[in-house]
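Progress narrative, work stream C.
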Amino acid sequence: EEFLSFKICTKPIISDWKNRPKIRIRLTLLGSSAIGKTVLAQCLKYGRWPQTMTLPTSTIGSDILFYYLDKLFRNEYVVAIQLNDPPGQEQFESVTNHFFRECHGALLLADTTRLETLDRLEKFWYPKLEKFGMDHFQSVLVCTKMDLFEKEDIKYRELFLQRSQQFAFAHQMPIVNISAYRGDNIEYLFKQLIIRIMENDILINDLINQAIYSQKLNIIQQKVIPDIHISEKQKSKFTCCN
């Protein structure tokens, strides 16, 4: 219960935690172009989209942001979050495939003002995630731009809500409605997905094993590298004398 009160932080990891094993969770934003993926990624940092910042253009490369949780998991493990924001255009599919294979949690975004973005999730993004992704990934349907959706015609709203509920039910994932403009449900969204990942026994056990292995490897490297450095230094001294 204490761990579940965690917050997602952008500041550097607490210095006392630097030698602790690190669980590395990779989250990926998936969906069509111009649906708000990059805005959502930045909102996790600011809480809402800063009014002084201009809206970004479509992502061409792949943005990667890093965060960590301010609570230790099981009072032992640091939890680091890698948030991947790949491009949504079809011509960059080969780039996106890489993020499918290393995705513990997928945020599937649909623009509530464009029904075709939900169609694209159903016909392209989710099938690709199932095909190339991990066996036990967790996912959530994210309906963006709720502040604009509320101004849409009531028949359109009913249709979108019905379709989104059908999609989420078919794939056993929750729905979270967000507004980057107002800051609605931004941190809640990420916390829910992180909790789902950590409640998945197969995923969390794999992540813990990787954390322990990485820590042991770092310890070995810290011991070996100084010895190699000294050895090379001595070798150069002998070479000079000769």
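Work stream C, second folded protein:
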Amino acid sequence: AEMGRTLVELFYDVVSPYSWLGFEVLCRYQHIWNIDLRLRPAFLGGIMQATGNKPPAMLPKRGEYMLKDIQRMAKYYQVPVKISEGDFQRIFGTSTLGAMRFITAMDMTQPGYLEPLSREFWIRFWSQREDISQPENILAVARQAGLSSELTQKLLEMISSPAVKNRLRETTEEAIKHGAFGMPAVVAHFNGEPHLFFGSDRLELLGSVIGE
């Protein structure tokens, strides 16, 4: 981080609608607050497994609440998340490992593209309800985000490389080391200490801790 700027890391997976909400708010505030926002693509499945966490919708009452909560937040933050009851099954049935490896490959190649690329994955999965585990959908996302076909091809080849797999695993482990048990996990490095905030509804608190 530059002198006087607070480094804020956002650990996210595009399978998570709350991560999309947190991502959009932090992307807006990075231009207003004195922060360096660092996007950290990680794998939610790995975090759940390591911490023994379970998807919130497995508790029916919590699932009911989540539907309303995400709809309200989508409206409030003007993020086009569309969610209905069937989406919980859809999430359980989709692996975002390939998508998160593709995003990780981008982070290792041209990190400037991370924001538009990640956003397109969320739009495709959470607005257009497409299965982003399919290679042709990953290609469509890359096109939408403005990637050249050469770059897209390069990233697709990188997906299966040990370098990308290890990088995604390391980023996921880093989130766990900071205390993450779900996503989004936001870590603000302030006064020489990491401060973990879980979820997209703690951003006022984040602002308060870093003096914004």
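The first strand starts at residue 6 and ends at 12. No further action is required on this item.
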